[in-house]
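To start, an entry.
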Amino acid sequence: MPTATTTTTTSVLSLKASSSSSTAATLRSLYPRAARAFLQRDVPLTHSLLNSAFSLLNPPASGASVNDAFASQRRKWDILRVTFETTLYASPPSAQDPEHLPPALRANLMLSPEPLIATIHNRSLVLFTPLDSPQKSSSAFLPSQILVTLVLASLKLDCTDVGRGMMEDWLAKHGQAEIPDDPKGYAKVLELYCLHVLPRLEDWDYAEDFLTYERELPSDIRQVSLAILAALRSAKSAI
């Protein structure tokens, strides 16, 4: 026979599940509007919808729940936020318009590219690091899709060194957190690192050494990457 305590616990869990489901539904309904507003360059509306979404999104409660019901929403909304803010920074409104921007966006435009990307990166780390983690923010929990978005933003704003630092921090912590393996995501990170970031910095030898001694990539992908790297280097030397 159920006790009063059992009934109360069941009711609380039911309410939490209902609330979680409602929040997820709200986030799903907001996203198409935010994406459309971004594509239409409606800056105030995009910013407002992003704020609404992130008022509902929190970091995972624990390391065991990094793939909770909001995991995909965190990724898609953060990708949109990073893309929106860096696109606005790269192509700001005309001289008459900035005063009409929300204060947070005006503040972004006052920064140089390096601190802007560093600030956005740290914000993403906080979003994906579980609340019970000893560290407030750690690259060990950052999804590969978010890292790739951040590094592409650093390339777009011509602060490649910042992108390199983010990638090397992520690679150094790769595998330290108990999160599901993502071989395709890892391969995409290495492709960006070795075939785009390091070549842009003309660190060809390090890129070649990294690919040669890296052991998580399948050997066929590693060999293809080495061949592409050699072709890029040859083309660069011919200029």
Q: What stands out?
A: The radius of gyration is 21 Å. The CA atoms of residues 198 and 207 lie 6 Å apart. Confidence is low (pLDDT under 50) at residues 5-15. The chain is about 70% helix and 0% strand.
